[in-house]
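Q: Please design a sequence for this.
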């Protein structure tokens, strides 16, 4: 397995180009199952999760071509409706074929995505919503067996919890259902918004895009003509690089971003004392030697994103005082704490609340990546720490960060990838 070796303590400088959003790209690959044409997608991040989803589409019988961040996908040849365990276990977002396959073919089998490091990650809300749309669903030998032989019908669906991929699955199912589906308590993440916008540009009438209430007029199984589109920039990658500058007292500029999607992150960095120059598609952050402690409560969009909680916890180790981080969305999203403590971080946990004492001078160590965003927090801590850090099991990082070591090296970091 690969590991990353980072010599910490240096400064970063220059510009970093932010890639397309993994979490926008995944549902957008799922929506190709509703199309009847060659669908051209640009600005796809070249990360493992995207490759895995394309492999899944190929296994279902789609024709795909993917190179240098551009894909052409035609799913008219799809003749399989089973998403097998071997794929789903590698990437739980494979659940995003459930809604489209069921809406289009009237039946599908999707392996239940297991839990993961950050929590149980159930999909009960996805299944309940599809049953309200007329599907019969049962679980057999670890597979979701979903049937709707007459197609799905419109329904009024209220999610008891805000679920991003749950909303995305139902939006895609509703796009091909019969009648007008209303989704209450829908997720408002920018990734959900782009999915709705692409469907709207494909002729699906959708009201309330960007709000918690969506109304979708289905095509009654008429396949869609999906025009080409660019995947939106990755707001979580952008937040990660802002923290990389912040934790190393560096000034850098991020290019190719959508600052509209970063408001909560920008606000929190300003609260910590940072100066940021914000334009529509670039941000420059100034270096700061004395960081103010801060409080974070992770919340659904437009609140503070859970996907940058770990990165801000690493940053909090460098603040002058006590920071507090409350993780509301996932029950086990503090896997990075033990590893940060190995580097000298002073963090105490009380349920879903972490108290971080700063300023603590971190020391390089051998640490273990456990999940995608926890791993990026270890990279940030390693950039700040004195000495050498080796981050093991970095396949987690490869799932969601495009050209991580190349981008960090370009910013002046001392990082290389080794094999053990
Ligand atoms: C999406 O996961 C993202 N993944 C996650 O990013 C992100 O952390 C999460 O949304 C929250 O923003 C993708 O978009 C591919 P949820 P998702 O359904 O949709 C509970 C990353 O780092 N829930 O919004 O799986 C669930 O357990 C990844 O890129 C149910 O109880 O998250 C959680 O507590 C990690 N039943 C809460 O809702 C359900 O049926 C929010 O989960 C569904 C969810």
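A: Design:
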């Amino acid at each position: 397995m690969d590991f990353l070796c980072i010599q910490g303590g240096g400064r970063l400088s220059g510009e970093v180009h932010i890639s397309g959003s993994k979490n926008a790209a995944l549902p957008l690959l799922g929506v190709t199952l509703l199309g009847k044409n060659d669908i051209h997608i640009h600005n796809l991040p070249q990360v493992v999760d995207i490759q895995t989803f394309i492999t899944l589409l190929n296994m279902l019988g789609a024709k795909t071509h993917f190179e240098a961040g551009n894909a052409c996908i035609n799913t008219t040849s799809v003749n399989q409706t089973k998403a097998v365990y071997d794929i789903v276990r590698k990437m739980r977002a494979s659940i995003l074929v459930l809604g489209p396959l069921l809406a289009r073919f009237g039946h599908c089998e999707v392996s239940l995505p297991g839990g993961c490091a950050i929590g149980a990650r159930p999909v009960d809300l996805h299944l309940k919503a599809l049953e309200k749309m007329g599907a019969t669903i049962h679980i057999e030998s670890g597979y979701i067996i979903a049937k709707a032989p007459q197609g799905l019908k419109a329904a009024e669906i209220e999610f008891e919890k805000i679920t991003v991929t749950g909303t995305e699955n139902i939006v895609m199912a509703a796009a091909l259902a019969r009648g007008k589906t209303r989704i209450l308590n829908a997720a408002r993440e920018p990734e959900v918004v782009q999915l709705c916008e692409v469907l709207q540009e494909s002729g699906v009438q959708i009201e309330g895009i960007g709000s918690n209430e969506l109304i979708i007029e289905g095509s009654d199984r008429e396949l869609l003509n999906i025009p080409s589109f660019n995947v939106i920039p990755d707001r979580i990658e952008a937040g990660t690089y802002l923290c990389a500058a912040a934790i190393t007292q560096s000034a850098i500029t991020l290019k190719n971003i959508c600052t509209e999607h970063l408001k909560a992150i920008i606000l929190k960095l300003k609260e910590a004392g940072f100066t940021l120059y914000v334009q529509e598609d670039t941000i420059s952050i100034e270096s700061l030697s004395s960081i103010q402690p801060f409080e974070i409560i992770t919340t659904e969009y437009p609140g503070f994103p859970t996907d940058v909680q770990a990165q801000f916890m690493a940053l909090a180790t460098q603040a002058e005082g006590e920071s507090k981080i409350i993780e509301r969305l996932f029950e086990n999203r503090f896997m990075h704490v033990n590893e940060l403590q190995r580097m000298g971080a002073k963090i105490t946990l009380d349920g879903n609340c972490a108290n971080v004492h700063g300023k603590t001078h971190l020391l390089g160590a051998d640490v273990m990546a456990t999940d995608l965003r926890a791993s990026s927090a270890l990279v940030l801590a390693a950039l700040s720490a004195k000495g050498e850090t080796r981050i093991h099991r970095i396949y987690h990082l490869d799932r969601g960060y495009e050209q991580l070591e190349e981008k960090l090296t370009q910013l002046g970091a001392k990082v290389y990838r080794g094999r053990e």
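Q: Thanks. Anything notable?
A: The pocket of EPZ is lined by residues 23, 26, 93, 119, 121-126, 161, 163-166, 191, 306-307, 329-330, 372-373, 400 (CB under 6 Å). The mean pLDDT is 96.
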